[in-house]
Amino acid sequence: MPAPDATPSILCIYGGERLGVGVRDEATDGEVVRAVLAGNVERYAVLVGRYRDRYARYAARMLGSRDAAEDAVQDALVRAFDHLAECRDPDKFAGWLFLILRNRCFAERRRRTREGRSLELADEAFAAPDRPDGNVEQAESARALEQALGHLTPQQRDVFVLKHVEGLLYEEIAQLTGATVASLKMRMHRAYDRLRELLKEHL
Amino acid sequence: MSPGYHPYHPLVKRLLDGELSLAELPPELRPEGEQALRLIGAVDRTPVLLSAALDARVMDTVRRHAASPARRAWRWFTAPRVVELRVRVRPWTVWAGALAAAAAVVVLINRAPVSPVPASVSGGPARAGSRDSVYVRFVLYAPGAKRVALAGTFNQWDQNAAPLVPAGTSGVWTTTLPVPVGQHQYAFVVDGKRWVADPAAPAVDDGFGRRNSVVAVTARGVRTL
Questions:
Q1: The domain B91-223 belongs to what CATH superfamily?
Q2: What range does the domain containing A19 cover?
Q3: Is A83 in contact with B206 (Cβ distance < 8 A)?
Q4: Is there a domain that residue A194 lies in?
Q5: CA dist A78 → A31, A36, B45 (Å)
Q6: Is A20 within 8 Å of A54 (Cβ atoms)?
Q7: Residues 161..180 of A with a Cβ closer than 8 Å to B: which?
Q8: What global pTM score does this model have?
Q9: Full pLDDT tens readout for chain B, 225 residues
Q10: ipTM given for this complex
């Protein structure tokens, strides 16, 4: 199985120790959170800079659209600021922010389901990425898989994206989300079967 | 399921999970395994970059929220803070204070116990502490637990601040501690890793996938919401 790209995975910053690209600042997440809570609102820009893109791929794959992902990440960052005092462990701000974003993505999926809007129609441009290597067949397979992912349940899609897009182990996903490894495997295995059924024309 | 539906063989699913290699599959399953790997291999891992304007939009919004009086009041109410007290004392005042504290403990011990409201949370006005605090008793039934602690907005969610004590071998854990008047969210921490909402108190979604119990402490005791 090909290794994920070198893009930092979600788990890499779960502990809040490693700093991302963007706004350069040596302070740990915990130090920044405490500064913001002490009234220095402008320091929040450090956290925005660190995490604005880090979770974008997860949100985009969950919602099927870069625009929807941008809305979700923006909402999550604002919501995290509003509830910053409730962050139990400021040094684990990254994991806490991820859970906010994940809930936001689930809520968006539920809202679309209620409104009868399908995920795969959200952003045709995103669902048909052009491969930099110009491999048309590979691009077509990626497009078909992206469309099929829109038919998974949010829980199945969540574990699929975390495992096969972000490259996390089941144990790491369990640590991040609080779910058990057994339940994650069950969701994933059902997703495999569902994808096989959805993509039988392409296999 | 459609009539032509064929789930993957369990070994092929383990292949997709990365637990087996293609060579470890029985020969008859390898074509199915190769097909499954092609399916998953098509996943698009291209990084997604958001627009440069996002930072400014977020910061504009948080500055607006930070300036809102209602939100400021809420943050003041919920934000943990360190309070440093500096007191100059003469030696005789230490002895006087110790005597006063001992007297307060005697008064507290002689008080009739208050009835639990609800089963796991009960309390009455503090006699020994500040007039703005009320002693609240927290109870959790956790048989098999090695340690239980109480964390909440009243102790900055510190898992080490309020350990519960087991009542014999009954599986019941309790603690009584002064809690400032106001509305508080809390949860029990079992064995240092599992957060458990109080089953006997109302709970609210903290917005991040967990449930926090809620208790309202008034000068006249504990009130459930």
A1: Immunoglobulins (2.60.40.10)
A2: 1-123
A3: yes
A4: yes
A5: 19, 13, 27
A6: yes
A7: 163-165, 167, 170, 177-178
A8: 0.60
A9: 445 568 899 999 999 998 888 899 999 999 999 999 988 888 888 888 899 999 999 999 999 988 877 766 766 666 555 566 676 767 777 677 677 767 765 555 554 343 333 436 665 544 444 558 888 889 998 888 889 999 888 887 777 789 999 988 888 899 988 888 888 888 998 887 788 888 888 887 665 456 788 888 887 777 655
A10: 0.79
